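ZP: hey, is the zinc ion complex queued? I don't see it on the tracker
AM: it wasn't, my bad. submitting now with these inputs:
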Amino acid sequence: MERRTVVRCAEGHVFSTSTFPMRNLGVGRLGPGRLIRCPQCGRLRSSVPADLGALSEGQLAQASRSA
Ligand SMILES: [Zn+2]
């Protein structure tokens, strides 16, 4: 089963990705986010891990569908 990370792009879109390199998320190296292709922007966006506790159920549902 694939482990996914829920992330939020710079435009505020929430989606899940299996490619977020959590282990390499060093502090301050390349900034707080990673460039990930946002399915809603349709282009690479600086994205950061979403705070799951701050997301609504709707946002979480949307994120899980956007894989
Ligand atoms: Zn986006």
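AM: back. The chain has one domain: 5-65.
ZP: great, adding it to the tracker
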